[in-house]
Amino acid sequence: MAIAKAERLMNLALCLLGTGRPLSKRELRGSIEAYLEAGSDDSFNRMFERDKDDLRELGLVIATVENLDGEVGYLARRDSNRLAPVTLDAEEAAALGLAAKVWQQARLAGAASGALQKLRAAGLPEDVDPYEAHSALEPRIPAHEASFEPLMLACRDRRSVVFDYRKATAARPEQRHVEPWALECWRGHWYLAGWDRDRGAERVFRLSRITGKVRSRAGRFTADVPDVVTVRETVASWAGETADRTALIRLRTGSGYPLRAKASAVRDLGDGWDELEIPYGHGLDAWLVEFGPDVVVLEPAELRAEVVDRLRAVAKG
Questions:
Q1: What is the dihedral of CA 75, 79, 81, 84, to 10 degrees?
Q2: Which burial class, exposed, middle or buried, applies to 204 when counting CB atoms under 10 A from its CB (0-12, 13-18, 19+)?
Q3: Which of these, 317, 182, 179, 303, lies nearest to 250 by C-alpha position?
């Protein structure tokens, strides 16, 4: 922020906080030097409106009052702009610091930085270093998909969305009309959990398979939004984190270390191949496809068929 603008905002905030009655635009223009130097009324009005919006964005509550003559005045009442004392222990403060630094997206980074500034103004300890014990670590949650931000806002505002989605077993995308509940990150991939209006059931969508733009739709949700824990369990199940069976696969020697880490048994078959028993749940087929020719599914037959279908879909483009 330029020094001149920062000074102008500070002066406007002091005027609005220090007055005992609403001040009109005319009075504010006569009290602040930068407004006096505005070239025209239009220039002043634009500058004032921007400054007022900036102060509100920073958290200042500005009241708009109309007097008996119809003239509009502004003031910032002190009781409306006084935060209650913030008492955080070191662990809570460190958690907030980590949460603010975890995002790579510029829009989220700005919001997180602004939130931290407000908390520090309300008493958050300045000397708390969330990386003090782990200075070599810097957490990141990448979200490269263009659909991430509009879906995040739709989840926040409870707005239904429409987007084109290509299933792993389909050659072409289909339009989906969804009431979004929450975004969850599993194994480095982002998933959207929500209510699919066309199918009348809850569904989980992998963001990397959303094509084109996410469009918002007006209207209330038609299905109840479950609690956060239930949503996370749903995503875990769809993303392959919940296993209730065992699969038998053949894995090329020296490859597929994430699969080996989950294996309950490993047998050397010779000729450069191993046989693994691994937990089998929803989503395992999508994970196995990522290893390409290094994996061959032996059983169950349904898992083998799912993997073959996915590979054929990939081959078709």
A1: 180
A2: buried
A3: 303
The sheet with strand 189-196 has its strands ordered as 201-206, 189-196, 174-186, 160-165, 210-217
Q: What is the chain's Cα-based Rg?
A: 28
Distance CA 269, CA 276 (A): 10
The rounded distance, in Å, linking the Cα atoms of 68 and 70 is 5
Cα 262 from Cα 277, distance rounded (Å):
9
The 3-state secondary structure of 86-118, one letter per residue: CCCCHHHHHHHHHHHHCCCCHHHHHHHHHHHHH
Positions of the chain with pLDDT lower than 50, given as ranges? 1, 106, 130-131, 133-135
Q: Are 226 and 195 in contact (CB under 8 A)?
A: no
* pTM for this model (two decimals): 0.51
Contacts of 230 (CB under 8 A, 6+ apart): none
Across the beta sheet with 72-75, what order do the strands follow? 23-24, 72-75, 63-66
For residues 16 and 51, give the distance between their C-alpha atoms in angstroms, rounded to a whole number: 12
Length, in residues, of the chain: 317
CA distances from 174 to 98, 137, 163 (A): 38, 41, 8
C-alpha 40/C-alpha 56 separation (Å) is 24
Encode pLDDT of 70-101 as tens digits: 789 999 888 777 766 667 777 777 777 666 66
